Please model this.
Amino acid sequence: MIRLTEFKMSARPYAINLGSRRPASTGVTFNAVWYRRKARVTHACAGRLDVWRLPMPAVLPDDPAELLAQEWDGRYGGHCVARWDGSNLWAPQIPYERAQEYLAVLRPMLDRFPACPPGYDGWWTFNG
Model:
C-alpha cells in the first residue's frame, strides 16, 4: 500500500486503526474508515480492510505501518458495516448499540471532511 501525503478522493484512500491488526489465512485485517461518493453524496464509511497476497510471507513485520507499506492486494476494497451520509445511518447487520458507536465516529468524520478521525492513521491507498 501507499501512504498518501494528502487526501485525494480519487485514490480511494483508507484511514486505518493500526492497533486493530488481526491475522487472516492469506493476509491481515484492520479496522478502517473511508469516504466514498454515491449519487454525488459523500458518505463516511466504517468497517474492515482486508489486505492479502499469495503466497503469504512466512514472517510479517511487527510494525503495522511497515507491514502496510509492503505490496498487498486490495482489489475488493473495504468491507463496509456502517455508512453515514449526513442524515441516514446504514448499518443493517449490527445491533443498535454498536451502530451508535459507529455513528459517534462517522458523524464527526463527515462533518470534518476530509479529515482523518482520531485513532486512525490516514491516508492509505492501493492506487498511487
Observations:
- The first strand starts at residue 2 and ends at 3.
- The mean pLDDT is 92.
- The first helix runs from residue 64 to 68.
- Residues 2-122 form one domain.
